[in-house]
Amino acid sequence: MRKGFNPNKDKKTNELEYYHQVIIPVYIPHNSDYFKDSFKILQLTINSLLKTSHDQTFITIVNNGSSIEVTQYLDDLLNVNKIHELVHTLNIGKLNAILKGLSGSNFPLITISDADVLFLNNWQKEAYKVFESFPRTGFVCPSPSSKLLRHYTYNVIVENLFSNKMKFTSVKNPTAMKRFANSIGNPEFYNEHQLENYLTIENNNIVAVIGGGHFVGTYRGEVFKNITQKHSEFALGGTSEYEILDAPVPQNGFWRLSTHDNFAYHLGNTFEDWMDAVEIKNSTSKIVKPILKQVKNSKLLNKFKSLIFSLLFRKKWIWKKFLVFKGLSKETAQNY
């Protein structure tokens, strides 16, 4: 039986003081074999995030069926208000855990990160520069990669095809790219040419790299507003990450970019001494909320850009001519 009137009925929720959400799904079922160092690496991830994030950052952790030890650690973080939201589930898969983190909120900026990322100082500030300097930006990765210039970037490339502001420039931090290659167990991931040059775009003296990976990245919240997929059949991989984290960026008319320099490291599942040696300072400076300009999106025009890109740039000889047109030598383009 119900008596009286619920005081919250028809009452609008208060707007949160936060404008930037960070979502980290965590799956560490035990501390042996593949997961031997994962708990230590998770602690590095969260400690670096807490140190480098501004005070209007809302941190959501989705515990995706982790061990009792990890669960207790996350509970302790919530209890002392170091994180703002903690969702406990059974192992429902990485993408389903991310979808849980996205639901029930409406943040203008959302960072989605793996649980093995070392956040470096100024990662938010540098991402915001990209969002403001390139109003069509919908995604910014803080760790640039020369190999991802064709990864869901068809609209950036087609729209700037004849602009002299989009061109190949020298890689600013090749050491960071080498560390990424090692972190995925493939030291030869980049060849010598890919470590020397990447495709960039410039505006208002701010340089961004074309493309970006999804191990960590900041999205405009609008990217996820029209997602109809509420569940992924894959625990990890498959088509899930592309359909939910990658494709919606250009489909909504946004650009996929990375910061010019490196502001985050992918750590992998094995601890190395250098990870503890990276100097990370507590963030004390105030960061002004970036102005996100409205971006018009035509689905028909978007499909046309995608079609043009597919027809032209999937042909190797045309792609090589494009690489030369944008600044690479013929020899480098041949092996890029």
What do these coordinates show?
- By secondary structure, the protein is α/β, with parallel strands linked by helices.
- Helix content is 33%, strand content 19%.
- The chain has 12 helices and 12 strands.
- It has a 10-stranded mixed β-sheet, sandwiched between helices.
- Strand 2 (57-64), helix 2 (68-79) and strand 3 (85-89) form a beta-alpha-beta unit.
- It is globular and about 55 Å long.
- The model is unreliable at 8-14 (pLDDT under 50).
Count of DSSP H/I helices: 12
Share of residues in helices: 25-40%
**C-alpha Rg, in Å?**
21 Å
N-to-C SSE string, H for helix and E for strand: EHEHEHEEHEHEHEEEHHEEHHHH
Q: Main β-sheet: number of strands, strand sense, barrel status?
A: 10 strands, mixed
Unreliable parts: 8-14
**Strand order of the biggest β-sheet:** 3-2-1-4-10-6-11-9-8-7
Oligomer: single chain
Q: Layout of helices and strands, plus pairs?
A:
Layout (H helix, E strand, L loop, with lengths): L19 E7 L11 H15 L4 E8 L3 H12 L5 E5 L4 H9 L6 E5 L3 E3 L3 H11 L3 E5 L12 H6 L6 E5 L3 H10 L13 E7 L2 E5 L5 E5 L19 H7 L1 H4 L3 E5 L4 E3 L6 H5 L21 H15 L2 H10 L4 H6 L1
Keywords:
globular; 336 residues; 33% helix; 12 helices; two-stranded antiparallel sheet; single chain; ten-stranded mixed sheet; 12 strands; alpha/beta
